[in-house]
## 1
Amino acid sequence: VLGHLDEARASLASAEGLRDRLSARQALYMDAWKNQLYDGNEVTSFRSWKMLADLYPDHHGANANLALAALSLGRYAEAERAAERVDVPQVELRSAALQLHGRVQLVQERRREAIASLREAMVLADGRSNRYLIGALAANDESAAAWGILMTLPQGNPGGWLDGTSLALSDGKLEEAFAGVDGAAARCDDVLRAVTDEAEGWGEGVA
């Protein structure tokens, strides 16, 4: 869904036409997505996913979304329970489940557990690192390790620019931090210009 809201809503609209063919479990799943995509209220979204997860504890999609919703609301105990139900070997995207569990552990300041979960997530993702591991290592005063992970992130990632600046500040490298901010600002202008050009080109093509 992230970054593809219109496409997600279009898919949901198509699924609505097949509602009569859906099981009760599938219909509730669709309703939960409808609340999340159209309502925009985090509490409503949380309640929708919780109802589905309570009815079907083995529904990994419901539990994953419940964990995210609870995390955004600061309901960490509920986020943890939902994340634990997703963090099981039979989940196809186990790396994503572990990353989610690690995020929940990190916000509760269980840093070593978070690092372990996020490192395992990286292994299962064929070595692809993630920003949350950088944050966990930095919070655990493992700056050198955090820098090492940061260097493996894809270039041109705005999140990586922010992480680099944060790490530089935490290490007291003010000049490096300011240089990182200036560089990120310049690159953001380039990204915005490219997006604008693409949008203008698309508009001309359909005019």
## 2
Amino acid sequence: ARQVLMLDQRLTKSTMQAGSHYVHLSSGAVFGKLSSPASSESPYSKSLLKNTYGELKINLEQDHALSRSLGGRIADLRIFSFVGDASLRKTDYFLSLALQSIRASNTLTISGKSFLRDYISGLELASAIDSTLSSRFSGVANLHTLAPASREDLVRRLVAEFELKVTYSTEDNLDSVIYCASPEGILPNYRPSSSMNIVAREFRKTLAA
């Protein structure tokens, strides 16, 4: 974490000296456990463990806020959940396990808490960066989607479109992990689709590759 902070400080300093624009990819992890979708007014988490990814991102964002107060043009774009070919193929998260089950025609066993997430892909991230640069945005923006997706909604879509077979190991848990943001229109040309459509599009691309 210390090395990342030192590298970021050098990048921030060179950006300010050159009068250029620094776009930093931050994370919704700065909020810790959410009880509702995040907004620009949502506070940082006060309960993150020391030396965690979330704490690192908070420290970086606070450094950037100080640099902005001194005239630096720095944007912190907070990603909540990312979906793409590499994450679908090489991780053990829910969507990756679902993809593996579809490919092998196996049954996916679902357990644990449900969730409500904003999923973006490389296309949405590129759009957000383009919007940041073209509008000369400096500040913090949550990379929301048109609508977040719950685990149950994703299961229904994957069953209907990709013939995913599922079973539940326990009774449905009404508690959900909330990891998404309210649409606020901070980036003027950033108009993402719904998380459900983004996930389905990335599944089609990965399965066709």
